[in-house]
Amino acid sequence: MTIKLLGEIQSYHAHVYFDGPEQSVLVDTLRDQIAERFSVLLGRRHDRPIGPHARPMFQVAFDIGEFDRMVPWLMLNRQGLTVLVHPNTGHPRRDHLHDALWLGEVLTINPDPFLVEREAEPEAVAVPNTQPKVLP
Ligand code: ZN
For residues 16 and 84, what is the distance between their CA atoms, to the nearest angstrom? Predict the structure, then answer.
């Protein structure tokens, strides 16, 4: 058994999934609430499944220092939406399929060329694009 080191984690992603008209409204509200509260790189909303993700979603990329506020906040405020939180270690297949955590329903991760295992590569730095003004 290989022990992986915490130092392998460069950053995290949270993927917030939605399905149907009711969740389509909820997800926009949640995305706005995240932007108001967290210094993160907030991705745009994808209305169709993209890459390995089997449902529409948006992505939040965040630094390791933001994990202990971002993830508990999502636990409390996800409004029934499913969230995948995965580390970025430069091994996308392992990060998504084996080392992720789910809030809510566990969804299928589709096989995708993106997830082909390769040599570890540094993840692009998640430069925040939000300007939080509300305490989480
Ligand atoms: Zn991701």
Answer: 7
Question: Does 26 score more than 90 pLDDT?
Answer: yes
| pLDDT for the residue 9 | 95
* Domain span at 52: 10-103
Distance 61 CA to ligand 1 centre (A): 8
Q: What SS3 state is found at 61?
A: strand
Confidence of residue 121 (pLDDT cuts 50, 70, 90): low
What's the CA-to-centroid distance between 21 and ligand 1, angstroms?
24
Q: How far is the CA of 134 from the centre of ligand 1 (A)?
A: 25
- What is the identity of the amino acid at 121? E
CATH number where 53 lies: 3.30.70.1240
